């Protein structure tokens, strides 16, 4: 199973992300911190379910969307000066590695996201 590293990388992200986001100032802790954590945990739940089911396509597409949310929330946290550059780069590397692993998995099961007309302009 070539997609097993995705679980280790996701665990590393969750292990780092949880205490880091809890250090956000109070005014951001319950909006941005909670949303970031929820998106990351939902991503993990979706890939676990995908591993355990036959029809992985929908779950992997949903996981891809959650990972995109995590990426956005981390960028927002950096722009709001809640994450310093070192933290943002670390998280960005982890998310990029997870994204590459997810993309490989999606390609193997034929679950590539559809482009085209449904993309925002």
TrEMBL record:
InterPro entries cross-referenced by the UniProt entry: 23S_rRNA_IVS_sf (IPR036583), bAvd (IPR055360)
Residues covered by the bAvd-like domain: 8-109
Family annotation (Pfam families): bAvd
Gene3D superfamilies registered for this protein in UniProt: 23S rRNA-intervening sequence
NCBIfam families in the cross-refs: DivGenRetAVD
Full protein name: bAvd-like domain-containing protein
Source species of the chain: Chloroflexus islandicus
């Amino acid at each position: 199973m070539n997609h097993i590293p995705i679980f280790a990388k996701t665990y590393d992200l969750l292990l780092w992300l949880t205490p880091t986001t809890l250090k956000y100032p109070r005014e951001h802790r319950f909006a941005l911190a909670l949303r970031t954590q929820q998106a990351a945990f939902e991503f993990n739940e979706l890939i676990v379910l995908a591993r355990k089911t036959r029809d992985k396509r929908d779950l992997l597409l949903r996981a891809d969307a959650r990972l995109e949310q995590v990426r956005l929330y981390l960028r927002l946290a950096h722009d709001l000066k809640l994450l310093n550059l070192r933290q943002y780069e670390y998280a960005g590397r982890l998310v990029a590695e997870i994204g590459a692993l997810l993309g490989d998995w999606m390609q193997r099961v034929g679950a590539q996201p559809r482009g085209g007309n449904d993309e925002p302009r």
